[in-house]
Amino acid sequence: MRKQDKRSAEIYSISKALFAPTRLEITLNNFVNTLSLVLRMRRGGLEIPASEGEKKITAATRNSGSPSAADYTVPKAAIDQIMTAGRLVVPDVCNSELFKDQIKWHGIGPTAFIAAAVEVDHETGGMLWFERAKESGYDYEEDVHFLSVAAALAGRAIRLHRTISGRGRTFAEEQEEQQNSRDEQSQSSARQRLLKNDGIIGESTALMAAVDTAKVMAETNSIVLLRGETGTGKECFAKLIHQHSTRQKKPFIKFNCPALSESLLESELFGHEKGAFTGAIAQRVGRFESANGGTLLLDEIGEIPPAFQAKLLRVIQEGEFERVGGTKTLKVDVRLIFATNKDLEMAVQNGEFREDLYYRISGVPLILPPLRHRDGDIPLLARAFLQRFNEENGRDLHFAPSALDHLSKCKFPGNVRELENCVRRTATLARSKTITSSDFACQTDQCFSSRLWKGVHCSHGHIEIDAPAGTTPLLGAPANDVPPKEPGSAGVASNLIERDRLISALEEAGWNQAKAARILKKTPRQVGYALRRHGVDVRKL
């Protein structure tokens, strides 16, 4: 080992002894013993005189078979010289005027003495000393230099212990708390870095459970159905599944399935040949071909017209199709992910969605949690959106604690998308660098989202949302338990109509829930959910 490396290892060993999570007296005794081994000294000690409000500190080596350093007193003349010069080297104490009156230092043979001053709280008042057998021609300069470094470290350690003690704590308690905090921050940062890289921000239990499930899904090629309210991040989860799958180096293609005609959907997904229809001036590759070998996300799958559903079912089952206007059968290898915020079960019952297609795509569902079920994620998301806004606009805005507290109390029916819009709108209109709770539009009744979602209300200790017609609230109850909406209605009016129909059916059935379910063409479980939702007390006849 090189000499420089050896010295570095020795400094590390004494630093480790100095900053161990033990009481100060134990720490310093371990320190002087470690130092005596490093410097191959016989005896040594550390002395810090008492100061205002502090006790005297002493530590000494404990060598078996020889007198302890605690039995030796450093002469006052030697101490004065140490305090003045900051160091002292005496090649032989038996022939030194400084030690002539110290009987205990005589009779032990030729002995060298080295010492360095210790500075605590910016005052030099202590010393660290060692003695060793005298060696002819030995250069003590290197030892006294090393001892000076050790003395400086000891002074810092003593000051740190005293500072922590002033808070009514021990050094061990402080270190344990700091380590726990570092571990927690490290784990949290690691989780957040991972999630941010996948386009997902948060660390709530509900979100982490969904992320873990998505990663398990990524290990196979099974079809996945992502379900959740609007704005819950279905596209982000689809990307996460793709990025953690064996197809990650292949294309990830996304396509929204809005209410397009059958011909337009067919052309978009399967492509078309030149001249297939008016305006088809060239051959076009569809989304399935573009995603070959990779992943294809079909969002808003509940909106595709019934006439096209049969063609989609064939592709899902056999992986083959023809371009519009073509006769050649094309075969592709695509991992399919579907997404919807629609109540597909109700759509099947109403004849709007093919039952066979429903069973084909819903084998591996993943329900994404709404923002109101993701405790603690709103501040993380809000800060991330504000940081993005700052980077895009060259601003330096930040949230006051009151602003984050206010955001955390909002239910955000539009979920992450609504939260981002809220942050951007508020940041755009902010008149100072600090955004406070009074800056939000809802404080002045200017939040149009709250007007749209007047169906948000509290019932039985949890939040429920009367989503617009054709959407699925997915509030933690199974999809089959979600009562149907009246077509084209939403909010309070829909609630009143549904409640009247429920009560009417119950009265017709003599308040027998099973009979009422048959009248309404629902399951008893759905009727029970509706009773709780509308606060209807069941009469016993």
TrEMBL record:
Membrane spanning residue stretches: none
Residue intervals of the Sigma-54 factor interaction domain: 200-428
Region (Disordered): 170-191
Keywords linked to the UniProt accession: Activator, ATP-binding, DNA-binding, Nitrogen fixation, Nucleotide-binding, Plasmid, Transcription, Transcription regulation, Two-component regulatory system
N-terminal signal peptide: none
The UniProt record lists the keyword Aminoacyl-tRNA synthetase: no
Gene3D superfamilies, per the entry: 1.10.8.60, 3.30.450.40, Homeodomain-like, P-loop containing nucleotide triphosphate hydrolases
Subunit structure, interactors included: Interacts with sigma-54.
Role description: Required for activation of most nif operons, which are directly involved in nitrogen fixation.
Protein's recorded name: Nif-specific regulatory protein
Source organism per UniProt: Sinorhizobium kummerowiae
Gene this chain is encoded by: nifA
